[in-house]
Amino acid sequence: MEDIDLSLAQGLVVAIVPVLTPIVISLLKRFVEQIPAQYLPILAPVIGMLITGIAEGFGIDSATTGAILGSAGVGVREIVNQNVTKTKA
User: Fold this and answer.
1) In the predicted structure, residue 1 carries a pLDDT above the cut 70
2) If you average pLDDT over residues 58-84, what whole number do you get?
3) In terms of Cα–Cα distance, which of 72, 86, 55 is closest to 19?
4) How distant is the alpha carbon of residue 44 from its chain centre?
5) What is the C-alpha separation between 61 and 39, in angstroms, rounded?
6) Cα–Cα distance between 64 and 84 in angstroms, integer?
7) Where are the alpha helices (DSSP H) in 1-89?
């Protein structure tokens, strides 16, 4: 079996940042109860930057990409919440 190319692995991690971000926020909400709920969406770009920085290395390009993808994670969470709400109604 061939080794996965490092750039491919980094690209895959970056591609799933919008999915990972709501998961990390949910875990933070569960384990760090002192964080007020209104600040959780603000943490999304920061979490995206951290995930992308870990995957690609910290730099201006990865930070910007991570912040944008982390913010997209808030949109992903809202889409899931709206679909779950519609199916329960």
Assistant:
1) no
2) 83
3) 72
4) 6
5) 25
6) 31
7) 6-15, 17-31, 40-56, 60-88
Reported residue count of the chain is: 89
Q: Residue 62, Cβ neighbours under 10 Å: how many?
A: 20
Residues 16-43 as b/e (b if ≥16 CB within 10 A, e otherwise) read ebbebbbebbeeeeeeeeeeeeeebeeb
Extract the tokens encoding 1.
């079996």
User: Can you read off the two tokens belonging to residue 43?
Assistant: 């943490």
Joined together, the tokens standing for residue 81 give: 């919440």
* Six-digit token string for 22: 């709501």
Q: Determine contact, residues 44/76, Cβ cutoff 8 Å.
A: no
Mean pLDDT calculated for residue range 24-44 = 85
Looking at residue 84, its amino acid is V
